[in-house]
Amino acid sequence: MEWFESARALASAFGAAEQQEALERAGRRYRAGAGFRGVVLGGPRRGKSTLLERLAEQGIQGEDGERPEHGELVELSGLGGADGGAQLTAADQDHLFRADMAVLVIAATSPLSMEEEQELRFLRDTVGVPHIVVAVSRTDQVESEELDDLLDDIRDRVAEVDQGIPVLPMPAAADTGSSAAPLRELVALRRADPGLPGLRLRRLARQTCAVLAELAALGSAAAAAERSAEQDRSAARDALRDALDAGNTRIRGLQTRLERSSLASARKIFATVQQQRRVLAAELRQNVAAAQDPLAWWQDDFDDQLHARLAEACEQWAQALQDDMVRVVGQLEESLTKYFPTELRGVVQWAQPDRPPVGRRREVRLPDLDHWRRLIVLVRPTVEGAARLVFAVMERRRGTESARRSVGADTTLQKTVVDFAATSAARFADKRISDEEARQRRIIADRVTQAVYREIEEVADSLAALVRSTYDKLQQELESARLSWLLAEERELAAMTASPAPDWNELVQRAGELRAKIHAGIDGMRSGIGNGEPT
Description:
The chain is mostly helical. Helices cover 70% and strands 5% of the residues.
């Protein structure tokens, strides 16, 4: 039974567990059927039990009778219905789907309702019962002149379902001799039918076709649902891609903004330094002017004062820069919260930058002024000796009394000349010393300015490097967060396209092709299959 195994494989391939179990049950029922089995079914108060009693009186025993060789006739608790026998118990369903013959009992007083007509179609198409009989009970409750027309109408309606289904009226209960004879003879005839194994196989084929119809309906519904779901997924994927592109563009823009902010902070620190270094240099130049010994101040006090001023300035500049970056990062985090949670503020918790060591100072070398100081000491004895020599020569030349008389006046003149020369020499030496000291202060003041500019620029370079380093860390954190967000969004996007759904259209097509193949062979099963039970 290649077609049956194909149906099982199809149900298994598409995960149709309910249909697969239905096929398994049909296969078990087919293989379990050894003797003739029949069922009697119908709505309530249709006379099913009465019919079984009459059959028993004429030798047809039910399942609990003492003559099991006559086969098994089972009264079902109700109708199977178009819903696949869901109204029946599990035991009744098992009897129904294994039945070789089904007797549907209807009442002449309410002939062949819509539900009973659906039951006939269910017995023929879904269950595939080989032999179906319609028994009409309560004929004694209908006027005799109306009974024939009633039965003709029932036969016409039954023929619309299947022309091979006989309609047998059941006589009144008082007529026990022949009340069930036609049905008894029909049961005996069907039970002895040599083509019964083939009909059972045909029944299995019809049950398989019914399951395939369910598979096709399942596939059609699933295909429609999948199309709708795919449209929803496609719209969601498009929306996610748009959001992904927009978010990525937004984050890239924030990275560019952060880079510009880094450059702006570096320029800001340099501008601040350009302004502050003049102020600091002017203050320290005033200290040079106020120092009694500028050279000693330069050698002993300049480093300490410069260190103190630079430490204070560095602390103020660093705090201002940190506050500015915290503000920028706060705005950045607010812009990113719609995409992913961030903790960028922690990156700005930087340490106070170390002030670079003050460079080696250039020594200030002044000219030696001792010779000017010695000039002040030596000018008087030198002038006095020169004056004595001059006056001694003059005295020898004159040799007269008048020359000797002029010694007192010469001595006064000599004293005046010596005093003038000594004073002039001292003034000149003091001026030279004062000029050199002023020059020394100018040189030291220039050295102060150069040192201040050099040291502050080194501090500015250190702060700018720290700014760049901090912004580099922020860029790294932002890039890491961006990549993590992109990865999560791409995973979500991939999840929307992962695990492709089964090709439900293929299920519909294959189920339809297999049904057509089975239907094409059903008519041939009656004559083409031997009497032996197929494997």
